[in-house]
């Protein structure tokens, strides 16, 4: 089947589910504040799809694109560190804008540019420069204390390195594994609490474990088939609309609903990689890496978020793309889908 | 690149699959984890989760009769839930006797306090009442009260066990352990004064008559004579500060509170403690255990609610001889002293009354602790009635009622 159609359909269903869940968590019908980012995102996605189609994305990656993308990511993180305000443990720009979505896109574009160099593959120097640039942004993210985003960026970069070469990929994944083990063994700051809850949420049920356990209570309450859409006690789920939206889904729609959402993301993941493989076969290695980076970023985010709710991994505080509350995140995610669809468009079709 | 993307795709697919499996595992195993079930019941309170939870644990007595002893949401109920979870929903057999329990509950109707009925030879609890019901605090296990004169049983047995058996002058003016402290007097002094009569005091008392008269003046002096070191040793030997586990389960246990026994006191400061006042606080179960240690010749068995538990030693607080002598004194209390109203013919009840000042003003807490029969004690019954006034008036009739029911049920043979 046409990968573009499937990605579009899966994304559309997920976005529609997201709007429905947010409307169910809010009061009544979705209002303008919710629909505006949706409109902006759809329009931006169409524009991005057009802008990236016909090999244009690959040409952008060869020019100053990677440097511009890196500059934007660096500037956004630096701005966040300087003028950001704390809210619920996270840093936000004034107006409670979260620039992390844009940072992810920029990092993917930057790394794709560096890894696309060379005729047969990037030289070690290119990989190291690209990695160092990503590392600088990652350092700023760590300074901001957003370890969820750091983890997501690291895994995304590792996936792109893996697509480029077995050895660079294995090295990157190994380093992430070591970093995780190190953080688990001697966690700093609020990470200590998160790792402690991860090991056993039932130690401090009314304190540190409260959030995770309430989410799990919702998951268990939903059973296999769920209580019915809108019938769960979503009020009892902490941060229901954002980090814990999967718990709301699980209670309302049960294991069936949760597995359905995971399966849809699995479809996006598979089709995104299929697009990447095809573009690679057509010789557009930059676009292949761009597609890989985009779906990797989205899938990593899904896995980290749901794993946090189900206590498979420590809570990272990152959201479930397309479904969690958040206007800017929804808009940028739709733009990412647009880029992916643009890259997926056959070069031969570009003339039409 | 194609193969690497395939591998990458498989990795992501596995990750997503792992999550779906983790989700399913929580559904299957969550309701099997007693600690998680307890969280759901106590803190999550979700209408939807109720349906997937295992049923509440039910307690039964040896005859299979249902015991309605644990309040919803109480630790007791959580322990029963845990045990039932481990036993595939089967009822949890307890040592309690449903009939004795029902009688004791009826006798405590409308009062505040607790009843503990304990087999001294096995440690098995036969009745455990906390009144009023519908309260998370189990007064019998965790209510801390000044034990008043019931503590004199401990003081007498502890002193005798350490070879102390003195005579003391007990004048009407009472005993002042240190300059500037109020005199500790006998109740008689106050009663006589109220009637406008002159009381000359008990004169010279020995331990036996002091216990029968419940002389504060004597026991205050006994406490000072015993001194901090020997008192501390006796407290440790009886494990008064330790809690007791009555029913253990996988992740939570029903435990009694340890006693609040002051530490680091100087000898004069032991005077109020020796008469069961001051900062001393014990649970009704602890008073029952002290009584049981006397009844069981100085050997204290671990109290338990678990029908499957074997008798286990908890402590050896008193010598055989001391226990025997205190037993005889307690028999005299019931035959000829403050506990006369409990002298059931043919039962040879041994007992001790207690009237404990609450330190808050208002009426005193009423205590009665006893066992029967004297020769082969079968059952210890300890009763406290909060602000019940005199022990003989408020707590004794309850204990008598429980003993009579136990006799009727054949539990004293």
Largest sheet of chain A: 2 strands, antiparallel
What is the quaternary state of this protein?
A: heterodimer
Q: How would you describe the shape of chain B?
A: elongated
Helix content of chain B: 40-55%
Secondary structure: helix percent of chain A = 55-70%
Number of helices, counting only DSSP H or I runs of 4 residues or more of chain A: 13
Average pLDDT of chain B: 92
End-to-end separation of chain A in angstroms reads 21 Å
Largest sheet of chain B: 5 strands, antiparallel
Element-level helix/strand string of chain A:
HHHHEEHHHHHHHHH
Average of per-residue pLDDT values of chain A = 86
Q: Largest interface, with Cβ-Cβ < 8 Å?
A: A-B, 55 and 36 residues
The helix-strand sequence of chain B is HHHEEHEHEEHHEHEHHEEHHEEHEEEHH
Question: What does the secondary structure layout of this molecule look like, with pairings?
Answer:
The complex is a heterodimer of chains A (352) and B (413).
Chain A: H1 3-25, H2 32-52, H3 56-62, H4 65-83, E1 85-87, E2 90-92, H5 100-115, H6 124-143, H7 147-164, H8 166-185, H9 191-199, H10 210-222, H11 245-281, H12 285-309, H13 327-344
Antiparallel strand pairs in A: 1-2
Helix pairs in contact in A: 1-11, 1-13, 2-13, 3-5, 4-5, 4-6, 5-6, 5-7, 5-12, 5-13, 6-7, 7-8, 7-12, 10-11, 11-12, 12-13
Chain B: H1 2-29, H2 34-44, H3 47-50, E1 59-60, E2 66-67, H4 75-86, E3 92-93, H5 98-107, E4 113-118, E5 125-131, H6 139-142, H7 151-161, E6 168-171, H8 187-194, E7 201-205, H9 207-213, H10 216-237, E8 245-248, E9 253-255, H11 270-274, H12 284-295, E10 300-301, E11 313-315, H13 320-336, E12 350-356, E13 365-372, E14 379-385, H14 391-394, H15 396-408
Parallel strand pairs in B: 1-3
Antiparallel strand pairs in B: 1-2, 4-5, 4-14, 6-7, 8-9, 10-11, 12-13, 13-14
Structure notes:
The complex is a heterodimer of chains A (352) and B (413). Chain A is mainly α. Chain A is built from 13 helices and 2 strands, in the order ααααββααααααααα. Chain A has helices at 3-25, 32-52, 56-62, 65-83, 100-115, 124-143, 147-164, 166-185, 191-199, 210-222, 245-281, 285-309, 327-344, and strands spanning 85-87, 90-92. In chain A, helix 5 packs antiparallel against helix 12 (285-309). The radius of gyration of chain A is 20 Å and the shape is globular. The model of chain A has no long low-confidence stretch (mean pLDDT 86). Chain B is α+β, with helices and mostly antiparallel strands and 413 residues long. In chain B, strand 1 (59-60) and strand 2 form a beta hairpin. Chain B is elongated.
